[in-house]
Amino acid sequence: MRVVAVLALDGVSAFDLTIPCQVFAFATRPDGSPAYEVRVCADSTVTTAAGPAHLFQLSSPYRWEDARAADVIIVPGVPADRTPPPDLVALLRQAAAGGTRIASICTGAFVLGHAGLLDGRRATTHWRFADALARRFPGTQVDPAVLFVDDGQVLTSAGIAAGLDLCLHMVRRDHGATVAGQVARSMVMAPQRTGGQAQFIEYRVPEDSAAALGPTMQWMRDKLGEPLTIADIAAHATMSKRSLARHFRAQTGTTPQRWLLALRVQRARELLESTDLPLRRVAETTGFGSLESLRHHFTRQVGTTPSAYRAAFRV
Q1: Measured between alpha carbons, how far is 153 from 115 in angstroms, rounded to an integer?
Q2: Contact 294, 285 (CB under 8 A)
Q3: What is the b/e burial string over 133-161, where b = at least 16 CB atoms within 10 angstroms of the residue's CB?
Q4: 139: which of 119, 163, 171, 310 fits an S-S bond (Cβ 3.0–4.6 Å)?
Q5: How many CA atoms within 13 Å lie on the side-chain side of 172?
Q6: Is 302 in contact with 291 (CB distance < 8 Å)?
Q7: What angle do CA 113, 55, 188 make, to 5 degrees?
Q8: Do residues 82 and 13 make contact, with C-beta atoms less than 8 angstroms apart?
């Protein structure tokens, strides 16, 4: 069972702090046993915040030093203009040197930056603070447009709800799509937002009934095994390809092609975990058409081959 240490610094965002506690606490293995032990580590009584408001104080039986024994350390959002304590910076550096996986939510990326963990890496944070992160840590390649960045040992996420996406991604990376999907259902959230989606999605009232893409998106799910083209999708939505692209990005933050590809990879993960279907049949069922296409897109998104994924996560 992996130990997840959530660091509570003074001024920590209350929402950011509870995200990993909730996500990892909901994760259970196929046999029903807990997948993680979550520890909130605080060196003193700390005050939590939501925006400019101080909400409440909290204390914990775990101290920062207890995070040294953790498999994963998560730094929730804190005021971006504060310099973290030197002993915390030293702890993070030593943990990283020892191979501990370290992640940040929102402005927690600034703490990782002070520890030197973002040097030479791609990272993200809330779009309001992306420029400040890039100025303060010029050795970091800051991407303000994505939900989260998985750079291997070090992971960073954008603000607030993107922390949920990052933590679900970590569960999926550790235990597969089935366990992550169960966590998402328990939390009543969609499990399919990938890190490359846009941070800022322009939700707006549709200009007409054709712009409501819900029925078309469900149709795409139902037709997952068929070779859908943009023309096919636009025809179902009764709009031009250009209008489809505009409305789709406004409602989902991504393109129809990328959304459909993510859906197909997600379904392939589920089939690889829960069935003995041959890989060619998995490719056909999920609309990739060929085993070569499945391997290419699956490896690009998941970071491993379908065969290796099945060997690791087959229930």
Answers
A1: 14
A2: no
A3: bbebbeebebbbebbbbbeeebbbbbbee
A4: 119
A5: 24
A6: no
A7: 80
A8: no
User: Are the beta carbons of 105 and 76 closer than 8 angstroms?
Assistant: yes
Residue with tokens 């597969």: 176
Query: What residue type is 200 in one-letter code?
Result: F
Contact between 267 and 286 under an 8 Å Cβ cutoff? The reply is yes
User: pLDDT per position in the chain (315 positions), as tens?
Assistant: 899 999 999 999 999 999 999 999 999 998 899 999 999 999 989 999 877 777 889 999 999 999 999 999 999 999 999 999 999 999 999 999 999 999 999 999 999 999 999 999 999 999 889 999 999 999 999 998 888 999 999 999 998 789 999 999 999 999 988 898 889 888 877 655 666 665 654 434 444 444 578 899 999 999 999 989 999 999 999 999 999 998 888 777 788 998 899 889 989 988 998 899 999 999 999 999 999 999 999 988 887 899 998 988 876
Handedness of CA 197, 315, 5, 25 (dihedral sign): positive
Both tokens assigned to 82: 């504060």
* Other C-beta atoms lying within 10 Å of the C-beta of residue 123: 26
Q: How many Cβ atoms sit within 10 Å of the Cβ of residue 107? A: 26
Helix (H) or strand (E) holding 279: helix 279-285
Surface-to-core class of residue 236, CB atoms within 10 Å of its CB (0-12 exposed, 13-18 middle, 19+ buried): middle
Q: Structural domains in the chain?
A: 2-186 (3.40.50.880), 205-315 (1.10.10.60)
**Residue indicated by tokens 């229930």:** 315
- What is the residue whose two structure tokens read 């997952």? 224
